[in-house]
Amino acid sequence: MEQLLASLDALAAEDLTPLFGPALLDRLRPLLVAQNRLAAEVARTVREAEVSGAAEVDGLKTMASWLRSHGHLSASEAARVVRTGRALAQLPVMAAACAAGQLTGEQAAVIGRVAEPEHLAAAADQHVDVAEVDAVLTEVAVTRPYADTATAVHHYLDRLDADGPEPDPTEGRRLVIARHADGSISGRFDLDAVGGEKLQTALEAVVQAGRCAADERTRAQQLADGLVQLCDTALAAGGLPTLRGHKPQVIVKIGIEDLVDPAVGRGAAETGFGATISAARARWIACDGAVTRIVLGPDGLPLEHGRSLRLVPPHVRRAAEVRDGGCVFTGCGTPTFWCDVHHLLAWIDGGETSLANSALLCERHHTKVHHGFRVERQPDGRWRTWRPDGTEIRTGPHLTEPLRTAA
């Protein structure tokens, strides 16, 4: 182990700056093999630790919990390593390929489903030679892309239980969300085929409807924006189950001094789930929200609870929807029901909540307007948009010289 760590230290000390394309790829290939071999050794060691009950030494019951706490793995990754270790003991051909660095941890986990107790029992009942299945699937994994391996395993398991009852699709569904220090979240999910189809259909509808001129977002960004928009739409519709007698809503807590201060105010506001955001972000959320005044005493306990005031009443929103017909940001065609009502002159700065001071903006462009972009309605009813540098955003054929706002 000391030799291994010393070798890694030597690799980390190498200067990669002089290397270019082919040389870097030549260096990367053996590193990937080494990564696969290390993953196989981790899984094999975890399996032996599981059999011997080693987690009890640190006061834990399972190796999955040990990997989460001591290895800092996510719950899903810890479970995958444990399952892979169990599969290595049942599938010798796959184990040999893993030891040689020919399979990734993900591939091993997929093939490992073959060795789950219920599948081994079904194979025994039908006199299936698991050793042959092990060899065939390992060959597919070594020579074909990951997706082909997953397809082959799925095909085998379907044929193994061809006459069995239709499984409950909800049993395999999982969604794991991890919150980071800045309040952002990341995660992973597993859905059955029908559940996945529903999600993809809903996201694709939002993505296609929300595309605008000169959209430079990546596909991943479009899907992420679509997911947030689905949540916005569901929350705004008011049809979600109530929570302790109240409709679910995004809650932000901020002091009045930070709310009225035009500065960014890093970390000045707190969301209902505990994330910390800036005062600027809180003001953006409040642009089309409701504000409740709560006076706290020196001990932090509420002394007075004012009535919640909806900043944009329904009649103003309806009028803006009729007038604007969708997001007014140049080049965007997002429909009205996905839009917020933006105050052209911020309400916190004395801007009236009126039709004349309102503009419909989708979430993405509402964010841009709160980060330096500007929209303005002309006397003829047309909306124009300017970048933070003062140049106007225009679509279609136009002069190469950018238009700037009048001084």
Provide structural commentary.
This protein is α+β, with helices and mostly antiparallel strands and 407 residues long. Among the domains are: 140 residues, no CATH class; 61 residues, no CATH class; 83 residues, no CATH class. It has a three-stranded antiparallel beta sheet. A three-stranded antiparallel beta sheet has the order 12-13-14, with no helix packed on it. A two-stranded antiparallel ribbon has the order 1-2. It starts with a helix and ends in a 14-residue tail after the last strand.
List the helices and strands and how they pair.
Elements: H1 2-13, H2 21-52, H3 63-69, H4 75-90, H5 92-99, H6 105-112, H7 117-125, H8 130-143, H9 146-160, E1 174-179, E2 185-190, H10 193-209, H11 219-237, E3 252-254, H12 256-260, E4 269-271, E5 276-277, H13 279-286, E6 290-291, E7 294-296, E8 302-305, E9 309-310, H14 314-324, E10 339-343, E11 358-362, H15 363-369, E12 374-377, E13 383-386, E14 392-393
Antiparallel strand pairs: 1-2, 3-4, 4-5, 6-9, 7-8, 10-11, 12-13, 13-14
Helix pairs in contact: 2-4, 3-4, 4-6, 5-8, 6-9, 8-9, 10-11
Region (Disordered): 384-407
Organism: Geodermatophilus obscurus (strain ATCC 25078 / DSM 43160 / JCM 3152 / CCUG 61914 / KCC A-0152 / KCTC 9177 / NBRC 13315 / NRRL B-3577 / G-20)
Protein name: HNH nuclease
